[in-house]
Fold each of these.
Amino acid sequence: MSLKPSVAVLGAGIMGRLMAWQLARAGWQVSVYEAGGADAQSSPARVAAAMLAPLAESAITEPPVVEMGRYALTRWPELLQQLEQPVFFQQMGTLILWHRQDAAEAQRFGRIMHATHASNPALPQPQNLDMAGVQALEPSLETRFAQGLYLPGEGQLDNRELMAALLHELQRLNVPLHWQTAKAPEDFNPGKAGEPDWVVDCRGLGAKGSLPLRGIRGEVARIHAPDVHLSRPTRLIHPRYPIYIAPKPDHLFVIGATEIESNDTSPPSVRSTLELLSAAYSVHPGFGEGRIIEIATQARPTLPDNLPVVRLLSPRVLQINGLYRHGFMISPALLDVALDVLNQGTSPLAQRFSLSTS
C-alpha cells in the first residue's frame, strides 16, 4: 500500500490545527512546528469571540469574505461532528442594537445589510425590529432599546473548546507536535530525500518576512455574569467604539472591540477597558455585578487589502495567511481550498471565493 505524502505544518493557530488535523485524518504523515506552546497563548485564535456573522461583517469587508462566511455556516457543523470532544456551537442569529443618539449610524448599517442581502439573496434577509421585536428575541433587555436589527442564521462557536478539541485530535492521531520550535519554509527542502513532501505555512504574523502583514489589535474581556441572560451574539452600534457581546455556556460572555490598527499586544489601557465595559453595561445592567475572568489582547495578521491569501510560494510550499478579524468565520473555506490544492493541484472553490492560489 502506497503511503500518503508527508507535510510539515508551520503554526498551530486555528488554520494550522485545522490543516494538520484534516490531513492527518486523511492519512497524510503530518508534523507540526509552533513557535509557542500547546496552550495557544500566542495565537489570536485564543483571544476571539468566534462569531460566524457574514452578513454583519459585510459592513466592513468584501463580498468574497461574506461568501466564505456563508460557506462556513454549513461547513462548521460537519467539521465539529468529526471531533471526539464536544464544542459549543449555535446558530441563532445576531442581534444589532443601538442607543437613540446613534440612530443615524444604525440607519447606515441597516442600509448596508439590506444591500448585501439584495446582492446575495442566499443570505437570510435582515429583519427590522421595534421594541416588542427586540423583547421577543431577548426578554431580559426589557424596554431599553426602541429598535433593533436581527440577522437570522448567523452563529458562533467556542474558540477555546475548539482549539483544545483540535489539539486532542492531533494527539489522538499521533501527530508529532514540536512546541517552542519556530520554523520557516526556507528551513525545509520539500520533495528531497529525508524532507517532507510539502510545507504548509500558517504562521500568521510570523510570516511577515514573506508577506506585507500588519497587526489588527483585538481587546477582549471574558465576564462571568449570572444576572445577564442573552441567548445570541449582540452587537452595539457606536460611531467610535462598536462592541460585540458573545454569550458562551454557563453565563460566560466574551465582550470585545476589534478595529484597532496596531501590532501592540500589551494589556489594554484603563480608558479602553472602561469604554468596553461601560458599553456592555449600557446593553444590560447585569454586567455591573459580573466578575472579570480575563482581559486579553492579541494582534490578528492582516494584509493591505484586508483579504486572505492561499498561495503557492513554490511548487511544494503552500501559504495561508491574512485572516484579519475573520479567522473563525472564513477558516473552513480556506481549509477546503488548501486541501483541494494539496490533493488535486487546483481548487474549484478558489474561484467562488475570488482566491488566486498561484
Note: Residues 63-81 form the longest helix (19 residues).
Amino acid sequence: MDTDAFRKHLEESKSGFAAWGKYVTEKINEGASQKLGEEGIAMCFKIPSIPRLKKIDSALGKIGRKGYDNPIAQMTDLVGVRYVVLLSEQIDFVCDILKSEPTWLAEVSKDYQQEIETNPKIFDYQSQHFEVRPKNNFEINGILITTDMCCEVQIRTLLQHAYAELVHDSIYKPVGQVPYKAERQVAKSMALMETTDELFCSTMKLLTDVNKPRNQLYEDLTSIYREKIGGHHLRPDVKTSYAVLDEFRELFKDGLSAEIGRYIEGKQYIAKKVVDRAKTNLFFAQPIISFVYWAVDEIDPDELKRRWPLPGYLRDIEVIFSDLDRKPSY
C-alpha cells in the first residue's frame, strides 16, 4: 500500500478507530469497577486511561522507519490506551480482564515478565503490551468496527511509567548519539526500580495479611447491613469503618460476624432506628453501625466513649447509648 492510499485509509477509518479505542477502554474500566469498586479503582489506577489516536503524519513517518509493506496489518498502535497501576502485581489484574472479554481477541505483543526470564541479567524498558481486535465486525452508534482494527493496550506500573517518560524516547528511540555511560545509568535505574517495586509489593502483602481479619469483618458487616437493615440505605465510607474496627481490634474473635447478625435479629428495633436515621445521617448508613451497637453492649460505656475514634460522630454514639439504655458516667 502506498503512502497516499494509507493516508486515505486513516482518514476514512478515523472515527472507527476512535470508537474502538473508547469501547476497549470502557470494557476494561467496567471489569475493573466490578472487581474493585470505586475506592479500589482509585488505589489501583494512578493516571486516567484515555484512548488516543495516532496522528496521521506520525503513522506515515513510521512506515518509512519500519519499512512496512502492509501498514494496516503491521501498525498496531493506530489507537491505543495505557493503564498505569501502582504495583507490578496489579498488572496481572488488568491482563485478566483483557483476556476474559468475550467480544475481542487479546494477544500479548510484549511480555516484560517473559523478557526478564529470558534475559535475567538485562535491566530494560518494561511494559505489558496487548493487541486487541474485535472477534467480529459490529457497529457502535452507526460506526463500523472491523476485525482488522487493532487497539494497543499498554499496562505498566507507576515506576515503569516514570522511567518510560524520562528515558524511553531519549534512549530507546534516540534522536542522537547515546553514550555508553548514559545506557549504563539507565540500566542501573531500572534495577533500582525493580527492587523498589519488590519492596513495595512485599510491604503491601504484609499490610494485607495483618489486616485480613478486619477487612473480612468489614465485608461481613456490609452483608449484615444489606440483609438485616436494607442495602439501599448503605453509603459506605471505608475509612470511617476502618477507624472504628482498628480501635477495637481486641474484640475480634471467631464467629463474631454471626454473633453480630444474631444480635441485630434479636433487637429488631435497632434496624428500624438505623433506617430512619440513615436517610439524613451518614454515620447510620455505614456498614460498621451493627458492630457499634453490639460493641456498646459489650464494652464499658466509659471506656468506649474515651476510646471513640470519630470525634465528628460523638453525638451519634451518645444516641446509640440512649437506644440501648447505656450511659457513660461523664
Note: The chain has a mean pLDDT of 88.
